[in-house]
Amino acid sequence: MISHNSILKRTLPMLMQCAEAHRKPRWLPVAKSKIFRIPKRPVISEEERIELLRINNNYKTQMRAIKRFYHEEMIKEKSTLESASSEMSQQLEAEEWERCVKINDTWNAQIAAEREERRKKELQEMEEFALARMEAKDKELRHRIAKASEEIREQKKLSSTFITPENLEEAIDKALANPVDYNFAIDLQGQQYLGRDTPIPTKEQKKAASNN
Questions:
Q1: Coiled-coil regions in this chain (predicted)?
Q2: What distance in Å separates the CA atoms of residue 79 and residue 16, rounded to the nearest whole number?
Q3: 125 or 184: whose pLDDT is higher?
Q4: Residue 186 and residue 184: Cα distance in Å, rounded?
Q5: Element (DSSP H or E) covering residue 193
Q6: What is the pTM of this model?
Q7: Whole-number Cα distances in Å, 131 to 94, 102, 120, 128, 156
Protein backbone atom coordinates (compact mmCIF):
# COMPACT_ATOMS: atom_id res chain seq x y z
CA MET A 1 0.00 0.00 0.00
CA ILE A 2 1.39 3.48 -0.97
CA SER A 3 1.88 5.81 1.99
CA HIS A 4 0.75 9.42 2.21
CA ASN A 5 4.32 10.78 2.27
CA SER A 6 5.28 8.95 -0.89
CA ILE A 7 2.24 10.41 -2.68
CA LEU A 8 3.22 13.92 -1.55
CA LYS A 9 6.80 13.42 -2.69
CA ARG A 10 5.65 12.37 -6.12
CA THR A 11 2.94 15.02 -6.73
CA LEU A 12 4.54 18.06 -5.06
CA PRO A 13 7.14 18.74 -7.82
CA MET A 14 4.40 18.53 -10.47
CA LEU A 15 2.22 21.02 -8.56
CA MET A 16 5.13 23.43 -8.15
CA GLN A 17 5.97 23.19 -11.85
CA CYS A 18 2.34 23.86 -12.82
CA ALA A 19 2.23 26.84 -10.47
CA GLU A 20 5.42 28.27 -11.99
CA ALA A 21 4.10 27.81 -15.55
CA HIS A 22 0.79 29.54 -14.71
CA ARG A 23 0.25 32.96 -16.26
CA LYS A 24 -2.32 35.59 -15.47
CA PRO A 25 -5.34 35.64 -17.86
CA ARG A 26 -5.56 38.51 -20.32
CA TRP A 27 -8.87 39.85 -18.97
CA LEU A 28 -7.44 40.55 -15.47
CA PRO A 29 -6.16 44.10 -14.83
CA VAL A 30 -2.54 45.04 -14.20
CA ALA A 31 -1.22 44.13 -10.79
CA LYS A 32 -0.99 47.01 -8.31
CA SER A 33 2.74 46.46 -7.89
CA LYS A 34 3.29 46.99 -11.64
CA ILE A 35 0.93 49.89 -12.40
CA PHE A 36 3.55 52.62 -12.36
CA ARG A 37 6.46 50.53 -13.68
CA ILE A 38 7.74 51.78 -17.07
CA PRO A 39 9.79 49.15 -18.92
CA LYS A 40 13.04 50.34 -20.43
CA ARG A 41 13.02 50.56 -24.21
CA PRO A 42 15.74 48.45 -25.80
CA VAL A 43 18.48 50.40 -27.59
CA ILE A 44 19.28 49.15 -31.10
CA SER A 45 22.34 50.27 -33.03
CA GLU A 46 22.06 51.77 -36.51
CA GLU A 47 23.70 48.81 -38.19
CA GLU A 48 21.32 46.40 -36.47
CA ARG A 49 18.33 48.56 -37.39
CA ILE A 50 19.37 48.61 -41.07
CA GLU A 51 19.91 44.86 -41.04
CA LEU A 52 16.51 44.23 -39.42
CA LEU A 53 14.89 46.52 -42.01
CA ARG A 54 16.58 44.61 -44.85
CA ILE A 55 15.52 41.28 -43.42
CA ASN A 56 11.94 42.56 -42.93
CA ASN A 57 11.80 43.90 -46.51
CA ASN A 58 13.12 40.61 -47.86
CA TYR A 59 10.52 38.75 -45.81
CA LYS A 60 7.68 40.95 -47.09
CA THR A 61 8.91 40.58 -50.70
CA GLN A 62 9.07 36.81 -50.41
CA MET A 63 5.65 36.65 -48.76
CA ARG A 64 4.16 38.80 -51.55
CA ALA A 65 5.67 36.50 -54.14
CA ILE A 66 4.31 33.42 -52.39
CA LYS A 67 0.89 35.01 -52.06
CA ARG A 68 0.87 36.01 -55.73
CA PHE A 69 1.96 32.53 -56.74
CA TYR A 70 -0.78 30.86 -54.73
CA HIS A 71 -3.30 33.45 -55.93
CA GLU A 72 -2.44 32.73 -59.58
CA GLU A 73 -2.59 28.99 -58.93
CA MET A 74 -5.94 29.39 -57.26
CA ILE A 75 -7.26 31.41 -60.24
CA LYS A 76 -6.01 28.76 -62.68
CA GLU A 77 -7.57 25.99 -60.64
CA LYS A 78 -10.78 27.91 -60.30
CA SER A 79 -10.97 28.56 -64.05
CA THR A 80 -10.28 24.88 -64.72
CA LEU A 81 -12.96 23.83 -62.27
CA GLU A 82 -15.39 26.36 -63.72
CA SER A 83 -14.77 25.12 -67.27
CA ALA A 84 -15.15 21.52 -66.14
CA SER A 85 -18.20 22.39 -64.08
CA SER A 86 -19.67 24.35 -66.99
CA GLU A 87 -19.23 21.37 -69.30
CA MET A 88 -20.66 19.08 -66.65
CA SER A 89 -23.49 21.50 -65.97
CA GLN A 90 -24.27 21.68 -69.68
CA GLN A 91 -24.29 17.89 -69.86
CA LEU A 92 -26.46 17.69 -66.75
CA GLU A 93 -28.75 20.36 -68.15
CA ALA A 94 -29.07 18.45 -71.43
CA GLU A 95 -29.85 15.24 -69.55
CA GLU A 96 -32.35 17.06 -67.34
CA TRP A 97 -33.94 18.64 -70.43
CA GLU A 98 -34.25 15.22 -72.10
CA ARG A 99 -35.75 13.74 -68.94
CA CYS A 100 -38.24 16.61 -68.69
CA VAL A 101 -39.17 16.18 -72.37
CA LYS A 102 -39.83 12.47 -71.80
CA ILE A 103 -41.94 13.23 -68.73
CA ASN A 104 -43.83 15.90 -70.65
CA ASP A 105 -44.50 13.50 -73.54
CA THR A 106 -45.75 10.88 -71.07
CA TRP A 107 -48.05 13.44 -69.42
CA ASN A 108 -49.32 14.64 -72.80
CA ALA A 109 -50.08 11.07 -73.89
CA GLN A 110 -51.87 10.38 -70.61
CA ILE A 111 -53.88 13.60 -70.81
CA ALA A 112 -54.76 12.90 -74.47
CA ALA A 113 -56.00 9.42 -73.55
CA GLU A 114 -58.05 10.85 -70.67
CA ARG A 115 -59.42 13.57 -72.95
CA GLU A 116 -60.43 11.01 -75.60
CA GLU A 117 -62.09 8.85 -72.96
CA ARG A 118 -63.92 11.86 -71.55
CA ARG A 119 -65.01 12.92 -75.05
CA LYS A 120 -66.40 9.42 -75.76
CA LYS A 121 -68.22 9.42 -72.44
CA GLU A 122 -69.68 12.88 -73.05
CA LEU A 123 -70.75 11.85 -76.58
CA GLN A 124 -72.44 8.75 -75.20
CA GLU A 125 -74.20 10.80 -72.54
CA MET A 126 -75.36 13.30 -75.18
CA GLU A 127 -76.69 10.46 -77.34
CA GLU A 128 -78.51 8.93 -74.38
CA PHE A 129 -79.95 12.33 -73.42
CA ALA A 130 -81.11 12.99 -77.00
CA LEU A 131 -82.65 9.52 -77.24
CA ALA A 132 -84.43 9.93 -73.89
CA ARG A 133 -85.69 13.36 -74.97
CA MET A 134 -86.97 11.97 -78.28
CA GLU A 135 -88.72 9.13 -76.45
CA ALA A 136 -90.28 11.65 -74.04
CA LYS A 137 -91.44 13.79 -76.99
CA ASP A 138 -92.89 10.74 -78.73
CA LYS A 139 -94.67 9.67 -75.54
CA GLU A 140 -96.11 13.15 -75.06
CA LEU A 141 -97.20 13.27 -78.69
CA ARG A 142 -98.91 9.88 -78.41
CA HIS A 143 -100.62 11.04 -75.20
CA ARG A 144 -101.85 14.20 -76.90
CA ILE A 145 -103.08 12.21 -79.92
CA ALA A 146 -104.92 9.78 -77.64
CA LYS A 147 -106.44 12.65 -75.67
CA ALA A 148 -107.52 14.41 -78.86
CA SER A 149 -109.03 11.15 -80.18
CA GLU A 150 -110.95 10.73 -76.92
CA GLU A 151 -112.26 14.28 -77.12
CA ILE A 152 -113.26 13.72 -80.73
CA ARG A 153 -115.19 10.57 -79.77
CA GLU A 154 -116.93 12.42 -76.93
CA GLN A 155 -117.83 15.28 -79.23
CA LYS A 156 -119.18 12.79 -81.75
CA LYS A 157 -121.37 11.26 -79.01
CA LEU A 158 -122.58 14.72 -77.98
CA SER A 159 -123.22 15.74 -81.55
CA SER A 160 -126.45 13.76 -81.47
CA THR A 161 -127.83 16.24 -78.91
CA PHE A 162 -126.78 19.36 -80.81
CA ILE A 163 -129.50 21.66 -82.15
CA THR A 164 -129.33 21.73 -85.92
CA PRO A 165 -131.53 23.49 -88.45
CA GLU A 166 -133.34 20.22 -88.99
CA ASN A 167 -134.41 19.71 -85.32
CA LEU A 168 -134.70 23.34 -84.34
CA GLU A 169 -138.54 23.37 -84.21
CA GLU A 170 -138.56 20.19 -82.14
CA ALA A 171 -136.09 21.63 -79.64
CA ILE A 172 -138.16 24.80 -79.24
CA ASP A 173 -141.34 22.82 -78.57
CA LYS A 174 -139.53 20.65 -76.01
CA ALA A 175 -138.13 23.68 -74.18
CA LEU A 176 -141.54 25.30 -74.02
CA ALA A 177 -143.16 22.11 -72.75
CA ASN A 178 -140.52 21.60 -70.05
CA PRO A 179 -139.54 24.97 -68.61
CA VAL A 180 -136.50 24.98 -66.30
CA ASP A 181 -135.97 27.68 -63.66
CA TYR A 182 -132.32 28.12 -62.78
CA ASN A 183 -133.02 30.59 -59.96
CA PHE A 184 -132.59 29.32 -56.38
CA ALA A 185 -131.91 30.69 -52.92
CA ILE A 186 -129.74 29.40 -50.02
CA ASP A 187 -130.43 30.06 -46.35
CA LEU A 188 -127.90 30.23 -43.48
CA GLN A 189 -128.11 26.47 -42.97
CA GLY A 190 -127.15 25.84 -46.63
CA GLN A 191 -130.57 24.61 -47.79
CA GLN A 192 -131.53 25.39 -51.39
CA TYR A 193 -134.94 26.69 -52.45
CA LEU A 194 -135.40 26.18 -56.19
CA GLY A 195 -137.58 28.46 -58.31
CA ARG A 196 -138.18 32.14 -58.42
CA ASP A 197 -141.55 32.02 -56.57
CA THR A 198 -140.78 29.39 -53.93
CA PRO A 199 -141.66 30.80 -50.45
CA ILE A 200 -138.92 30.68 -47.81
CA PRO A 201 -140.25 29.65 -44.36
CA THR A 202 -139.46 31.80 -41.32
CA LYS A 203 -137.84 30.60 -38.08
CA GLU A 204 -141.24 30.28 -36.32
CA GLN A 205 -142.60 28.17 -39.19
CA LYS A 206 -139.48 25.96 -39.06
CA LYS A 207 -139.85 25.53 -35.24
CA ALA A 208 -143.56 24.71 -35.61
CA ALA A 209 -142.83 22.21 -38.38
CA SER A 210 -140.10 20.59 -36.24
CA ASN A 211 -142.45 20.37 -33.19
CA ASN A 212 -145.18 18.71 -35.26
A1: 104-158
A2: 58
A3: 125
A4: 7
A5: strand 192-194
A6: 0.32
A7: 55, 43, 16, 5, 37
